[in-house]
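Hi V.,

Quick status before I head out on leave. The structure for the redesign project is tokenized and pasted below; the design run finished overnight.
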């Protein structure tokens, strides 16, 4: 007889006393299945940094084929194509480009340097488990480069519940994609995992009949092999990543007359990484820990824009040693450590060779004070000893105060520092006949960011709702100015004057009935930059290609157990500035000499029209399967003429990026499936 309090006793007849017997008792009251779920978008209530959490449920609202497509239902981050040829995507946050957002993969700085061009495409959506979006300056523990925010992406782990996760996707443009995640526990401590991806697009699309492919043809192979060891006192993860991608864009083959030169864009990228994360744990002192992160990268890419070559190689080494503990009690805690970053760049554009080696050891410390679970202060500072630009000090402060259990007020301020990679971060502008000019020795970018936010969770008509208000300002002490105002030129120079970004956002989340969620958000940007220093002027102008207003509405409904899910997202993108300076024949574009002065003060520019973008998806879940059907840009809106002078791509007027501001392609329909086999 086998019995236990709260369970029904059971009686078994044992015929072989030496056999092992396993007995499962039933509870006195057998419960039906219990489902615990949260809303698709959440604010981290514990963190003093304004942090938004995107879960796999959020990512499943759209196709989410890679990281660049993971923000379609998010109001804080917007994504757009950087030009009309390469297919490179860039994000914007707080009115600034993604170069000012530190994007980490499992707390390892990853999308930076030469990877800033196509790096968002290198993280498949099915690999992602969560995305944390932090606004303003982040923790000094993660480095000095996060000037406008931090994004941390957590990938599926080797000990994940899904032993097998398979995904396939196809869309109406001809893009085909397959993903396979495998995880296997070897024993109680060891587990191994594989994340794999392959995708391709081989269909030439030219919807506006300008002779240029609207999307580049490409093939990508991408994979990670990793292992994890976990015990009571020690944990480690390590693995390797490998990626190969080739792209072909430019004029469609059928649009070129026989014997005429064809303008093509090509890019081949090979990227390899090795990473490890090790932690020493103290079970009897859970507040104490010692961790070490190590990452090595080799990134090599070879590009050609028509007859113009651009080749880049980056080799990086990153290490971060972190120790955390308390001072007296858990109201006073701290983190301290040392870091090291080595970047070796070798770029060749046309006949110009550009090399740079950055060696940056650093030390940091961060103190956290908590008072009665109502007030939290995080004060941190780091000192980095840059071999090229000297010692850089980075102070940062975060405050959080809970007015009551439903209302939280946050504030932050801090300094950011980064060394720009002018060509890699403005890759799309090279698809043009512009002549590149560097005026003076480019200095590091330095900024101060200040922010305040209010989060209020309340009941609206008897149902739960939340309201998030935030305001952030970024002031630059120095900035790389990317000046396209002169036709035929791409000018890089240091800031002389002011440059700032003001960002305000209001977001309302509401669940009027069970399983029906609404999100309504409005975002306002005021972004300005002084321009014209090399030409004897310093005029404060609105930043080019930044929409002043953006409105996002998302509605999602799910039947019980998520058998059917329907999601609709509507975005309105407000007008943005594009320059219309006229070419002056008295200007010598080969020597960069003006015989006629341009006036930034009297410059003529135009604003693009605002436009709507509608995306929708419906999915049906079975026991282990889920199928989905969706569409993007369902209104079919697209910019009709994103390329200037496409009929003469080797002429001096050709430009595929300077006036590309809207969707290049029209309506797109997609379908796919997900298969999960859990433990």
């Amino acid at each position: 007889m086998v019995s236990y309090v709260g369970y029904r006793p059971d009686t078994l007849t044992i015929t072989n006393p030496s056999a092992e017997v396993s007995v499962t008792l039933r509870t006195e009251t057998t419960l039906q299945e219990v489902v615990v779920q949260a809303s698709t978008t959440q604010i981290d209530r514990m963190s003093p940094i304004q942090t938004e959490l995107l879960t796999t449920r959020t990512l499943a609202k759209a196709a989410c084929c890679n990281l660049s497509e993971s923000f379609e239902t998010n109001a804080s981050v917007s994504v757009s194509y950087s030009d009309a040829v390469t297919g490179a995507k860039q994000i914007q946050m707080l009115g600034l480009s993604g170069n000012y957002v530190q994007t980490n993969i499992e707390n390892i700085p990853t999308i930076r340097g030469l990877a800033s061009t196509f790096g968002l495409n290198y993280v498949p959506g099915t690999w992602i488990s969560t995305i944390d979006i932090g606004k303003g300056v982040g923790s000094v523990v993660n480095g000095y480069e996060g000037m406008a925010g931090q994004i941390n992406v957590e990938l599926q782990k080797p000990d994940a519940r899904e032993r097998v996760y398979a995904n396939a996707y196809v869309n109406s443009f001809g893009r085909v994609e397959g993903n396979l995640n495998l995880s296997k526990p070897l024993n109680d401590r060891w587990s191994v995992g594989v994340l794999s991806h392959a995708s391709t697009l081989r269909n030439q699309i030219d919807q506006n009949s300008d002779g240029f492919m609207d999307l580049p043809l490409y093939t990508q192979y991408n994979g990670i092999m990793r292992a994890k060891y976990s015990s009571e006192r020690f944990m480690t993860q390590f693995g390797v990543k490998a990626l190969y991608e080739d792209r072909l864009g430019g004029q469609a083959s059928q649009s070129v007359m026989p014997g005429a030169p064809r303008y093509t864009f090509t890019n081949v990228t090979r990227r390899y990484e090795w990473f490890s994360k090790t932690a020493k744990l103290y079970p009897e002192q859970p507040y104490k820990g010692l961790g070490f992160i190590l990452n090595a990268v080799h990134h090599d890419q070879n590009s050609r824009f028509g007859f113009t070559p651009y080749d880049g190689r980056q080799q990086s080494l990153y290490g971060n040693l972190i120790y955390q503990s308390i001072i007296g009690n858990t109201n006073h805690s701290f983190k301290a450590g040392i870091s090291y970053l080595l970047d070796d760049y070798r770029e060749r554009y046309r006949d110009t060779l550009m090399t740079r080696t950055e060696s940056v050891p650093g030390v940091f410390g961060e103190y956290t004070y908590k008072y009665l679970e109502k007030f939290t202060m995080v004060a941190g500072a780091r000192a980095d000893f840059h071999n090229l630009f000297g010692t850089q000090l980075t102070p940062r402060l975060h405050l959080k105060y809970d007015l009551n259990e439903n209302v939280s007020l946050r504030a932050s301020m801090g300094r950011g520092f980064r060394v720009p990679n002018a060509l890699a971060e403005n890759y799309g502008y090279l698809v043009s006949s512009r002549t590149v000019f560097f005026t003076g020795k480019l200095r590091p970018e330095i900024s101060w960011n200040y922010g305040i936010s209010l989060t209020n969770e309340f009941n609206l008509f008897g149902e739960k709702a939340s309201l998030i208000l935030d305001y952030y300002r970024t002031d630059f002490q120095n900035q790389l100015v990317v000046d396209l105002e002169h036709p035929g030129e791409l000018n890089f120079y240091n800031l002389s004057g002011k440059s700032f970004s003001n960002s305000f956002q209001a977001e309302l989340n509401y669940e009027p009935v069970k399983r029906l969620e609404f999100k309504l958000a409005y975002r306002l940007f005021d972004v300005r930059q002084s321009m014209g220093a090399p030409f004897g002027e310093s005029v404060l102008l609105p930043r080019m290609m930044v929409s002043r207003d953006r409105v996002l509405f998302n509605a999602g409904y799910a039947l019980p157990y998520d058998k059917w899910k329907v999601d609709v997202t509507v975005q309105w993108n407000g007008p943005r500035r594009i320059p219309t300076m006229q070419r002056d024949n008295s200007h010598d574009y080969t020597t960069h000499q003006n015989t006629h002065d341009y006036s930034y003060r009297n410059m003529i520019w135009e604003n693009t029209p605002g436009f709507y973008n509608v995306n929708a998806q419906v999915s049906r879940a079975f026991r282990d399967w889920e199928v989905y059907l969706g569409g993007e840009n369902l209104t079919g809106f697209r910019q009709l003429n994103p390329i200037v002078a496409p009929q003469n791509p080797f002429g001096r007027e050709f430009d595929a990026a300077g006036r590309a501001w809207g969707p290049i392609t029209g309506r797109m329909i997609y379908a796919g499936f997900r298969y999960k086999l859990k433990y």
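Above is the designed sequence. Residues 583-587 have pLDDT under 50 and may be disordered.

G. will cover questions while I'm gone.

Best,
W.
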